[in-house]
Amino acid sequence: MSRARGQTRRGAVRRAKRQPDVRLPALSRPKKRAWFVGALAAGGIALGAAVILGDVPGMAWRGISQSVARVGLVAEQVEIVGATHTRRIDVHQAVLPAGSNSMLDIDLEAARKRVAALPWVADVSIQRALPNRLIVTLQERAPFAIWRTGNSAVLVDAKGTVLTATDLIPFAGLPILVGAGAATEAARLWPVLATQPQLHARVTGAAWIGRRRWDIRFDSGEILALPEGYDNAQGALARFARMESGTGLLDRGFARFDMRIGDRLVVRRASDKPDLEAKTPSSTPQSGLTPKFIKEVAI
């Protein structure tokens, strides 16, 4: 009986050994590729951190970068958001200059600095969107005025930064700034004008005279000469605003108002023909007009 039991156990063992193997389902080719790319990307990110920490030699990192590029992690698309005046080709070339386009090789901070150096760009952010896309978001400078100096005219923003524009006609409604340094100095004048909104709305241009004071032009053609110093200019503008509100000075045939002489307003009509300023005696008040064409009004 014991012999029979032994044979029975050996038979059971042999039968157990003949049990079919359990196999995992095979992955399809796309799934294999997706798994491999995901694993390689994760490994690449880990290795990237290691390189930053100094744990992986540069040559090893280049090998990893090239491997990543071979499986499809290459910057093939540059999505640009917020580019109205900036040329897209300029942004693309700044983000991806000649060289490797491997998603792990691209230095986002260096690319951001190159894009930020473009004339219209005030701020920029760049993000990776795996597997093959970069997203560039721009904040552009706002055109503020047209600056005329000598025989040239250029578009500038409120800080005086020159903006590239081959055609100024679309910006014809902007104020005109005239004079050396006017583009940057206007940032100090406009807050003064903003204290008198009704007058500010009618200002079409300003001339920076001798790098020390402003003449402003209204939409009706008159020029208002402001005194030196922004505190003095703001006070003179406030007095002019009171007179304009009370009696009306604009649209009445005047050509120029001069408020550089303390509490006096010097007025010239459009029909008057002043002598050349070069012939004006030095004793004449700072209006730049000869006495015969000066009408003084107490303020």
UniProtKB/TrEMBL annotation:
Q: Specify residue ranges for compositional bias: Basic residues.
A: 1-17
- Looking at the record, the residues that make up the POTRA domain are 73-141
BP terms from Gene Ontology: cell septum assembly; FtsZ-dependent cytokinesis
Instruction: Report whether Metal-binding shows up as a keyword of the record.
Output: no
Q: Which PROSITE patterns does the protein's record reference? A: POTRA
Task: Determine if NADP is one of this entry's keywords.
Answer: no
Q: What transmembrane ranges does the database entry give? A: 34-54
Which keywords appear in this protein's UniProt record, sorted alphabetically? Cell cycle, Cell division, Cell inner membrane, Cell membrane, Membrane, Transmembrane, Transmembrane helix
Q: Where does the record say this protein resides? A: Cell inner membrane; Membrane
Q: How does it sit in the membrane?
A: Single-pass type II membrane protein
Superkingdom of this protein's organism: Bacteria
Give the span(s) annotated as Disordered. 1-24
Q: What is its main location?
A: membrane
Which GO CC annotations does the UniProt entry carry?
cell division site; plasma membrane
Q: Which family does it belong to?
A: Belongs to the FtsQ/DivIB family. FtsQ subfamily.
Role this protein plays: Essential cell division protein.
Q: HAMAP family, per this entry?
A: FtsQ_subfam (MF_00911)
Protein name (record): Cell division protein FtsQ
